[in-house]
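SAMPLE LOG
Freezer: B-3
Tube label: C17
Construct: single chain, 215 aa
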Amino acid sequence: MKIFIDSGDIGEIKEAAQMGAIDGVTTNPSLLAKAGKPIRQAILEICEVVDGPVSAEVLSTDTEGMLKEGRELAKLHPNVVVKIPLIVDGLKATRVLSSEKIKTNVTLCFSPAQAVLAAKAGATYISPFVGRIDDLAEDGMKLIEQLVTIYGNYDFDTEILVASVRHPVHFVQAALLGADVATLPFKVITQLAQHPLTDSGLKRFLEDAKKIPKG
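STRUCTURE (predicted):
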């Protein structure tokens, strides 16, 4: 399964890239606002660090506006994927951009029906938000299970990009279910590498190493 980092912080992105952990990046207006840089500048900086898909979101909510922004974003760098909200106008924009060979990431997906429409529109990625579903006392991973089955039934080319990942358990569950990608905050990426037995084992090895005779 591919791992993307969900961040607009160039420092976090560089560190995750140095770990060899990430295959791409997802951003959104909220994440880029925290970075305090113009969207286009931030996206170009990210593309210089990560040689993989970099999702950049449109701000318009009408089809023509999304098409205009999407085409402009796609021109920034070959790795840019245009992120589009899963609304009717967004599906229309996705269909047109896909016909122009522009990659798209249809975001804010919360149901299997929405995901089918995105796939039929030609989306490169579909982003179901599992954490936000959990927030409503429902099972976000159930949606991933449904999408893996449905997309498999009909051989859709759209990749399932698990988003709103809150903890390592979400990541492991997504991998077990066969999702194509999970996009993780930097904190969760570092948590994947952590285990108390690793820490205690390393401590023991280092303590025992001090007992080795020198010579």
